[in-house]
Backbone:
């Protein structure tokens, strides 16, 4: 039994109801939500949540203004991954297993269905406090029924959707609301208690068997996370640490078909 069942899903035209610190701004279905948020980041209020009008995917991008250096602010990647995972866990059937894989994937029953990314003020170095940061989340909800067979053939067995895993009754609007609430709760926890609670929660759902793919085609052996949220990996026998904001540079930008 799920904690919430939407037999009458939210009207897609109804804006999501967010906590007081957050403000929802809709983005037309054909636009890239993360790109939109980055383009207007300098002139956007902290706590603005850009969300796509698409109903087959949940796509959000939250504008933040960290008061810590980039190397620590990048820990928001884990706060959003956990928030997205908790949102799915609260709304979806209990048998749906949620796990994580770097550089930012959320897996449902070991199939990739979600994605979290960071965008940070490019003028800020690792030890600088950035003027702005965007953390985005995407979750594939469904594919068109008539295209289901061809879609699955095209994307392969490692991809899935909420609908394919038994969560097709959950609307985009409810997931936007739930993801934002859980993300904000983890940000507050991080501010009060540091990175350790995020570390423990994220590691609990880590997809251990999944290596980290590098942009050049190499696969790095996963060793763990350090106290800054850096991914400890071994490539060609040499251990190294990759901070969250460095992952896309090394691994390439993660994407969902």
Residues:
């Amino acid at each position: 039994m799920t904690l919430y069942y939407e037999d009458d899903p939210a009207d897609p035209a109804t804006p999501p109801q967010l906590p007081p610190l957050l403000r929802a701004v809709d983005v037309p279905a054909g636009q890239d939500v993360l790109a939109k948020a980055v383009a207007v980041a300098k002139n956007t209020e902290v706590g603005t949540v850009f969300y796509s009008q698409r109903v087959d995917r949940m796509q959000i991008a939250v504008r933040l203004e960290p008061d810590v250096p980039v190397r620590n602010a990048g820990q928001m990647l884990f706060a959003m991954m956990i928030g997205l995972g908790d949102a799915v866990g609260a709304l979806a059937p209990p048998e749906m297993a949620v796990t994580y894989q770097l550089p930012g994937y959320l897996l449902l029953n070991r199939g990739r269905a979600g994605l979290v990314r960071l965008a940070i003020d490019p003028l800020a170095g690792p030890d600088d406090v950035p003027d702005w940061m965007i953390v985005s989340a995407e979750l594939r909800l469904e594919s068109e029924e008539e295209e289901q067979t061809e879609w699955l053939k095209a994307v392969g067995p490692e991809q899935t959707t909420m609908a394919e895993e038994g969560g097709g009754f959950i609307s985009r609007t409810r997931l936007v609301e739930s993801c934002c609430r859980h993300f904000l709760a983890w940000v507050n926890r991080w501010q009060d208690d540091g990175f350790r609670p995020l570390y423990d929660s994220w590691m609990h759902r880590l997809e251990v068997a999944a290596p980290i793919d590098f942009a050049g085609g190499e696969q790095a052996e996963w060793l763990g996370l350090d106290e800054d949220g850096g991914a400890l990996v071994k490539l060609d026998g040499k251990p190294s640490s990759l901070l969250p904001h460095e992952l896309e540079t090394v691994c390439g930008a993660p994407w969902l078909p």
